[in-house]
Amino acid sequence: MSSELFYLVGGLRDGCLSTEWTIVYVQKCKEWLTEVIIPKFKLAFGIDLSQHKLYWGYGAWRLKFKNKKIWTELTKLRTLLPEDKETQKSYIQAFWDTEGGCPRIPDKTKALYLSFTQKDKQALEDIRRMLTETFGIRTGCVRLSDKKKTVWRVCIENKEGMLKFIQLIGSSHPEKKLRLAEMEGILQS
Description:
Blueprint: H1 3-11, E1 15-17, E2 22-27, H2 30-45, E3 55-57, E4 60-66, H3 68-77, H4 85-99, E5 100-101, E6 114-118, H5 121-135, E7 143-146, E8 151-156, H6 159-169, H7 176-188
Helix pairs in contact: 1-2, 1-4, 6-7
């Protein structure tokens, strides 16, 4: 399986596979859709979505299209976890690009961190296991972050773990990769 496919699967954390072969990606950062997701569809499936119109609604941009072949492939892949290091990297990177967090202004914060937040606790347990076993990145436990909404969270708060994440996994998200670069500079100083 290609790393592009698993990035697209991880990216579905901000999207869905809905009825009638509809594929939807949702993101506040329009460039993530145009500069990352659309090119990955071209590489993975040979489909050119660059002329496809994005629309704004409910506080985010949406890429929405219908394709039975792609819908079927992504549906199948969503049930699998990536097995090799390269596909795990792509999956974790996309998961973090969609559901990850770090300080918005790293040089003005008291404590640096990287986090994954998600309602699906098992998905976070899987991410945590891949980070630990494949990449040697020590994380905290998966903890309940919001009891009312049943939202779970796992963090990387140690300097070595954050540097490993930045250097081995990184980000393709246009805004988040800038923050990671700034964090890397702070952590290495």
